[in-house]
Amino acid sequence: MGYQDQYQQSLQNKEQFWATQADAIAWYKQPRQILTEADYGTHRWFADGELNSCYLALDYNVEQGRGEQVALYYDSPATGSKRAISYNQLLADVKRYAGALKAQGIEKGDRVVIYMPMVPEAAVAMLACARLGAIHSVVFGGFAPNELAIRIDDAEPKMVITASCGIEFDKVIEYKPLVDQAFELATHKPDHCVVLQRPMAKAAMQPGRDLDWQQFQEGGRYADCVAVESTHPLYILYTSGTTGKPKGIVRDNGSHAVALMYALRNVYGMNAGDVWWGASDIGWVVGHSFIVYGPLMGGCSAIFYEGKPIRSPDAGAFWRVIDEYKVNSMFAAPTAFRAIRKEDPEGALAKKYDLSSLRWLFVAGEKLDSSTYSWLDELLGVPVIDHWWQTETGWPMTAPLMGVEPVATRMGSTCVPVPGFDIQVLDPAGNALGADQHGNIVARLPMPPGVAQTIWNNPQRFQESYLSAFPGYYHTGDGGFKDKDGYVYITGRTDDVINVSGHRLSTGEMEEVIAKNPAVAECAVIAVADEMKGHVPVGLVVLKQGVEIDEGELEQELVALVRAEVGPLACFRKAVVVQRLPKTRSGKILRAILRKIADQEEYAMPSTIDDESILPEITETMKGAGVGR
Ligand code: COA
Ligand code: AMP
After folding, report:
1. Which one of 192, 226, 260 terminates a domain?
2. Is the minimum distance from the CB of 494 to ligand 2 under 6 angstroms?
3. Digit-coded pLDDT (tens) for 432-475
4. Quick one: which atom of ligand 1 is closest to the CA of 168?
5. CA distance 386 to 398
6. Residue 21 DSSP SS3
7. Which ligand has an atom closest to residue 365 CA?
8. Of 281, 245, 288, whose CA–CA distance to 116 is shortest?
9. CA-nearest residue, atom 47 of ligand 1
């Protein structure tokens, strides 16, 4: 079936279409119920099926004769180490680790928080949880203790798994003191913290609570896979919403496995034995779907890279990895290529390597600018494919089906809707918009398998966040349009979520942190275009009446505060004092206008604005402070 046939089938005959896709995975109990309605306007896929995601990723591949094939190539320019880990080896490691978890009382449904750098042990921990039916929640290493504590309080894990350190270029970042601080800040106290001691830093251990990674496993027994219901959660992954409290996106086991197998084969065109590289981090959804679960379930050899695109040791790091492991396809964020291009504009380093194994390159996570696209296109001579997805969906919503019938890509577009996603563009009142008309991008319900159907402990919030704005549709939070041929163009978020280096952050959350400073009356954090990182946050701050403060000092305080409370990944480096903020008559800050002023774009004066005179004034202040282009 070509793309059009698959797409039509997936919408008109969805149960049959997805029942067929479900046959591609080895269930313990084959589902008979394909699609059922659930609470809060959500749906369940394959509700009566039973399976185990770790079995599909490891045991199944060994049973299929792939035991000696490499499952993970760990490549770490950060530490100068490399390891090729076979499916047999990874399975043995995971069985042992799952046995150790079980011995500590971790069982089906228990939560385990994983705060680790890109070491293969992190994948072992994730898969071991999956093996037992325990629910992992991976937290990206760039988040501060406060953010980790918020996630611990929400997920209420029995255990936290960490490493003594991560490495950022040549800096050793000690993780354990951050975890200790998070334990102090959190109200919920996990029973144990398991620590992988790395040679670059030795973590201090708290007797009784902390367990050494190696000793933890000694003398342990192997654990077998626990059969779980299709709808049983595999993981919780926190992502930024519009408020200070992150959303715990819950991924189930069954529909996730079906969706990943479908995407791996059809969207990414990867077969068993192919070499795949998801150049991201296990702390993000890409890391879950396409560093760990997807490529392993599909019998691929996956690259597990602990390094950066540049200075690792040079900007040829990505090209070296493609050549060394004969990577067939990869995924990376545009920021990574902007960074490479800045250091090596002529692509001289790429020409040193044999990149002939690469069939195509996928990018996502943030907007792919046309100049980076053209640079990559010319340099690599293979399709450079922009595609679009979110933590919530877990797999692409728009993309070409490279494994089926590659459709032509179009500059600026993230391509056509993937089977299962009925993408529409609506005006604020919910009316369908025509070709090239800009509006809210939504997907008609039910969403296909793999898409989250709830927020941890808060199904109402899921309903309010995604299903209430446009009844009958999932609200993506992105704005954009479709052209006359159905190609989708994403122009940016319609809410207060921003993307910094492809990392999703909430401006609302930063505003809450900034507001803690005693000098601050109110503030707005806006995303301002950045040549390398796509966007960076900038704070516009109104001081409390009567406060006299050196603005430079205040900026330093606020930068330090956001770094301490949100984390270095926020890249919050600029705060500007303004007299007033533009608001509607009902008191809502007009952030969209502020963004436009910063980016020196045209804007229409909103009819709801409280006081028009404020805009020229704030434009001058922002210009004077060098905010924006
Ligand atoms: N653990 C601890 N700290 C981390 C971290 C981690 N896992 N990841 C990032 N940080 C820190 C960095 O050290 C940096 O700290 P600093 O302010 O002390 O220098 C800060 O967070 C910002 O990091 P980053 O935005 O990554 O900037 P950078 O200048 O260190 O690196 C790039 C620039 C372009 C090399 C890097 O941003 C990059 O590789 N981008 C691609 C991102 C990506 O793959 N996203 C995919 C998401 S799907
Ligand atoms: P995350 O949940 O971290 O994966 O971030 C998802 C958000 O990133 C989306 O809602 C978009 O705003 C943005 N995004 C993802 N892919 C693209 C893309 N290809 N082009 C533009 N924005 C993208």
Report:
1. 226
2. no
3. 999 999 999 999 999 999 999 999 999 999 999 999 999 999 99
4. 13
5. 9
6. helix
7. 2
8. 281
9. 502
Q: Which amino acid is at 563?
A: R
Helix (H, G, I), strand (E, B) or coil at 351: helix
Query: How many folded domains does the chain comprise?
Result: 2
Q: Give the distance (Å) from ligand 1 centre to CA of residue 282.
A: 14
Pocket test for ligand 2, best of 291, 497, 499, 501 (most atoms within 8 A of CB): 499
Residue 91 parent element (H or E) = helix 87-103
Smallest-distance ligand from the CA of 409: 2
What residue numbers bound the domain in which 611 lies?
A: 503-624
Radius of gyration of the chain (CA): 24
Q: Quote the DSSP letter at residue 437.
A: -
366, 439, 543, 582, 589 from 610: Cα distances, Å: 33, 25, 20, 7, 10
Q: Is 126 within the bounds of a domain? A: yes
- pTM for the whole structure: 0.96
Is residue 32, in this structure, part of any structural domain at all? Answer: no
Do the domain assignments include residue 145? yes
Among 211, 226, 241, identify where a domain stops.
226
- Over residues 585-598, the pLDDT tens digits come to 988 899 888 988 99
**Best mutation site among 490, 491, 495, 509 for ligand 2 pocket (most ligand atoms within 8 Å of CB):** 490
Given a contact cutoff of 8 angstroms between Cβ atoms, the answer to whether 366 and 414 are in contact is no
Q: Distance between CA 116 and CA 100 in Å, rounded?
A: 18
| Half-sphere exposure (Cβ direction) of 570: Cα atoms closer than 13 Å | 32
Torsion of CA 467, 472, 478, 484, to 10 degrees: 180
Q: What is the CATH number of the domain that holds 531?
A: 3.30.300.30
513 lies in some domain? yes
